[in-house]
Amino acid sequence: MESEGTDDYETLISTTDADLLKRSWRNEKAAPEILQFQSSLVQRSREQIQLMEETVEELVANDEDPLTVSLYQMDIDRTLFLLRSYLRTRLQKIEKFMFHIQKTEDLWARLSRQEQKFAKQSIEDLKTHLEQSVLSKLPDRYQSHLKQSVISEEADMVPEPKLDAFVICRTRKFLGALPVDDSGEENPLDMYAGDMYALRYKSIKPLIESGQLDLV
Question: Phi and psi (nearest 5°) for 164?
Fold first, then answer.
């Protein structure tokens, strides 16, 4: 147990924010549902970008080697790409599943305050558009933007992420024999560090949320 804990600690301290941002970006792009917003990581990444930009300005002002300046600029561009793509991917999921996210407490809590504000505004805008362009012209029983008709028991017009979709994942450490089949049969799978698997997202969701698996 002590060796395993030491390995986890060494892995943590040897992982840079750039690595963490890339991992969060990959997980977000591959997961069918929106994941927890990485607030601290995003804030640190923004601060690092600002610091690197100031460093580049100083290097240019001091007529430093253009190659050195170029290497710093490459780091800035890479971090900016990852950060923007991470945030853009989340906004796209919010736009696609806004009604589902709003009515699901756990999903709503995963959003940042800015994302919650964006989701609320997007919902209001879409509701207004649907009511003015389509729903107001339909009979009363069909004027809901969530249900096909008033007799529908559930919000059957609200898109939801497909949690049973297959995803590609990689283990970060040896996990042992784990049940990853929701068929009701006991079919444990030996999961070794660094191995890749194609599994249903919902069967490995807790492992992704705990950081034991990465999506690719």
Answer: -90, 10
Helices (H) and strands (E) in the chain, counts: 7, 5
| Contact predicate 173/8, CB 8 Å | yes
Q: How far from the centroid of its chain's Cα atoms is residue 127's Cα?
A: 26
Q: Provide the pLDDT confidence category of residue 5 given band limits of 50, 70 and 90.
A: very low
- Residues 45 and 84: beta-carbon distance below 8 Å: no
User: 56, 72 in Cβ contact below 8 A?
Assistant: yes
What is the value of pTM for the model shown? 0.84
Q: Which residue type occupies 77?
A: D
* DSSP-derived secondary structure for 3-34: HHHHHHHHHHHT--HHHHHHHHHHHHHH-SS-
pLDDT score of 7 more than 70: no
What is the C-alpha to C-alpha distance for residues 119 and 97, in angstroms, rounded to an integer?
Answer: 9
Q: What is the DSSP string of 76-134?
A: HHHHHHHHHHHHHHHHHHHHHHHHHHHH-HHHHHTS-HHHHHHHHHHHHHHHHHHHHHT
Q: Residues 214, 23: contact at Cβ < 8 Å?
A: yes
Helix (H/G/I), strand (E/B), else coil: 189: strand
Q: What is the DSSP letter of 58?
A: H
